[in-house]
Amino acid sequence: MKASLKRNIASGIIVLTPVAVSAYVVYWIYQRVAGLPGTQYLRVTGSQTVNELIQVGFAIAVIVVILGIVGYVVRTAAGNILKDEMDRLAGQIPVVRIVYNATKMGVETIMGSNAEEFDRPVKIEIAGLRITGFKTGNTTEDGREVVFFPTSPNITSGYVVDVEPERLETTDESTEEALTRVLSAGFGMEADDDIKGLLPEDEDEGGSEDEG
Asked: Is the whole model's pTM more than 0.85, yes or no?
């Protein structure tokens, strides 16, 4: 029961954190734009409601322009260096690391970038241990699959490995589910029958007793 509650709470945090952080950032920018000197000149009509709508439209337009400029800068070489440095710094602070990565993953998932970068999640067994990875959609000249194995909980780092296709085991997880499990250090995974089958019988039975 407690384990299930922890998983539910972890999953809820991972889902809501990107939304909350993104909403706060947009709201913060909006407040600053709406309070800029000169916005009072946007009151061009005698209706307060219309004037407020004009101000809101102006603020939204400015936010879109700001986000567009930031996005353009990040796509440049200098921007990539700055982004990598931000990822590195965020990854060194425990609490910030989780929030930052959750936000980044959530935004990338919503915008569809993960679907472009990652194929279906896969697993590979090494020395009796199963490791989660993601196909990049690329292959080497000798036919090996190029697979990305992210670290946990900092999924912005990891290992790119060339693996023989026959060593890869496909899963029923979606990309988002697998990323959530890796990001949450395993706490966000659902205890379904497939996962329970990976546990030793005594641990599985013990978990059932706890839930009872």
From this structure: no
Which pLDDT tens digit goes with each residue over 7-46?
666 666 666 666 677 777 777 877 777 766 666 666 666 6
Instruction: Yes or no: say if 192 and 199 are a contact pair by the CB < 8 Å rule.
Output: no
User: The tokens 């250090």 sit on which residue?
Assistant: 185
Q: What is the pLDDT of residues 166-189, one digit of tens each?
A: 888 888 877 777 777 777 777 665
3-class SS string, the chain: CHHHHHHHHHHHHHHHHHHHHHHHHHHHHHHHHHCCCCHHHHCCCCCHHHHHHHHHHHHHHHHHHHHHHHHHHHCCHHHHHHHHHHHHHHHCCHHHHHHHHHHHHHHHHHHCHHHHHCCCEEEEEECCEEEEEEEEEEECCCCCEEEEEECCCCCCCEEEEEECHHHCEECCCCHHHHHHHHHCCCCCCCCCHHHHCCCCHHHHHHHHHHHC
CA–CA gap between residue 105 and residue 191 (Å, rounded): 22
CA–CA gap between residue 90 and residue 108 (Å, rounded): 17
Q: Give the total residue count for the chain.
A: 212
CB atoms within 10 A of CB 145: 22
The whole-angstrom separation of Cα 189 and Cα 10 is: 9
